[in-house]
């Protein structure tokens, strides 16, 4: 029955045993981790150098400030990373953060429950995210266009609603403000919230089918549809998550700074996107991790704190952010080429077996 | 070959009177088809006959305009590919559809990963299942490597592993063997036969008719979207099948002309790329067709890419018409008269979002350019010309290339490069996915080009094509040229022996 009828098939070579599953395991993982490691090293060097220059920099309060500064950006960057992994982008996060911060403040001002006001910010953010998600996922409009539109629309509606009003510290309950400033020794409560979110989202992306499907559809949307991935539903969910996290970040922003007005969060989307890209989340989708994005956020905000501490004018901050961004992209490019080379020689070794 | 009679009771999966149109194109017209457990069914037809469309209807990708899909005798409506898959239908699509950023193992199990407690993906189980699958298929590939950068053949192997990774009741394969050589095909067929004997229904498409006869028991033939015949294969000849497909008989599949062999046009000497190929030297003279054979992964396409300047190389040199080429520059290679029809048309050959017309014109914009402006008129005329020569089937020249059938896309790639009028033409799998009728036409064209003095280097996994067309056969094995065989001495035995490293004696 199995007798091959062609001569070509009659003398197939002995099958080479595939590489043992463990030998080359996790090349992808390793590369990702390398990126995260690199950011950590840069971060450590930077902080230690600053500490040597200015010994009060890494005091308990100093560390707390660093973490507090990073918290908001980490939260938004995690949501953004999920959207970017699906091959989209959400430019409306700054506007969402602004409007949710004010909404939470407005509720608190009228004596609302703090928990309820955080929930309101999250739900409002999720709803705005859903609006983006429906347009992108179901309407098939490119996310860049959709969210550029909603960036302006939400900002405009926010301005009309808020006018020249502002939420100031005196209008907020003191418990809310304490929550925004205090913490467990050097670790602020806000950072704990961000850490929990980060771990949960990272875990979801790595260990759940729907998380893996986000990578799949960012990598090749058409193939994902053929593999039975519910593409529209996943895209919608990514935008909802991103909006909800921007909303949460809005509420925490209010707690941290005790201030919100019509301009809150203006231009924030660019910082967020930089953090995500610096953190190694590929802009074409399908690669990277939320941990990387969080580290990217930590790096950017730390630079913000380091420069004044060593007496560099803060006007340099943006230029340095930009340089980091370009650097990150160049490193990605070089790495991609090197990995391609590595894979080629590996594949050859695998094929020719040990005698190759 | 013992033929398990089909279970006459109920087909596992069937189509009844299915029609499907894309705008003005009627891809399927009232087609019926029945797949029985334990039977391998072939689907034959020219490029654009509607085979892939039929498969996508079965797979839940397309919803039929008319007619119905029947599962175990009752009408079903697959809401999407996932629904068909959950019903036990495994599909290998014509174009590999992998996720470049994800590992091979993840590609295979996407959406179906084994899970442990709390619904978490069991990464370890995924890895082990893939390793076992690869062992069964004899594939030497690291399951943890990313899918990016896999050759077309390796991509097809991953697609095959994907389809075999769950207990399918129906296995549908749209040209799975198009880029594979004999030994991989034999291995695939062995696995498919085992599945069929366990009661799976199989639907198989291939333009290599010998494979159809080797694997299948029944055949359904389509022409222009309509059913021509559905019959047992026993008793049919290849010629019968060709007649049903194209509506006429073919004179010869390999219309090789005797040509005048001239001066050396392409001279490759001691070309080496670390870990990919070593010390590759050969010459192609004008008027000559040189075949480059070898197993998948022997390094044939890699050599072609390096010669053309797409990939760099570590040592050696390439000369065209006696002039040394600067390495790493495809545009200089083109200027020197070199053309490469690449293996992977999706990634390297075509711009899917552009029209047929513009794609054909792309490689030779200069010819249609006056004072810096591209003349759409000239571009169009040339496109019409070449599309007609290669019998490309399209509705309008302005159609996006992405909507053409697989074989017709391949013809557009060929047209694009032939339009440049090269001195040296390297074709990598020139007839991959092309139907027999047009295959003969492409062969005639290559032969004609050689007669006109073009030097042709033809890489092909289709051994009869190499034997039928080449004046000389170079055989690569593990990145080296293992043998050079003259036309007179080239037989299946000698070429396969050289490609696998077996001695010619043991091949008999
Ligand atoms: N998405 C689409 N949009 C428009 N036309 C399409 C689409 N898909 C297929 N067609 C058309 O339908 C017809 C049948 O295509 P199909 O891919 O089924 O052919 P095929 O028999 O598989 O050919 P091949 O052997 O070349 O793969 C072709 O004319 C093709 O151009
Ligand atoms: Mg097809």
Give the secondary structure arrangement, pairings included.
The complex is a heterodimer of chains A (356) and B (508).
Chain A: H1 7-10, H2 27-53, H3 60-85, H4 93-109, H5 114-138, H6 143-162, H7 174-181, E1 183-184, E2 187-188, H8 189-207, H9 209-219, H10 221-226, H11 231-257, H12 268-278, H13 290-309, H14 315-352
Antiparallel strand pairs in A: 1-2
Chain B: E1 13-22, E2 25-35, E3 40-44, H1 51-58, E4 66-71, E5 74-76, H2 81-86, E6 89-92, H3 104-109, H4 123-137, H5 152-164, E7 170-174, H6 182-197, E8 201-205, H7 209-215, E9 218-223, E10 226-232, H8 238-246, E11 264-273, E12 277-285, E13 289-294, H9 300-308, E14 315-320, E15 323-324, H10 330-335, E16 338-341, H11 345-349, H12 356-362, E17 369-370, E18 373-374, H13 376-389, H14 406-418, E19 424-428, H15 436-451, E20 455-459, H16 463-469, E21 472-477, E22 480-486, H17 492-500
Parallel strand pairs in B: 3-8, 3-9, 6-7, 7-8, 13-20, 13-21, 16-19, 19-20
Antiparallel strand pairs in B: 1-2, 1-4, 4-5, 9-10, 11-12, 11-14, 14-15, 17-18, 21-22
Bound molecules: adenosine-5'-triphosphate and magnesium ion.
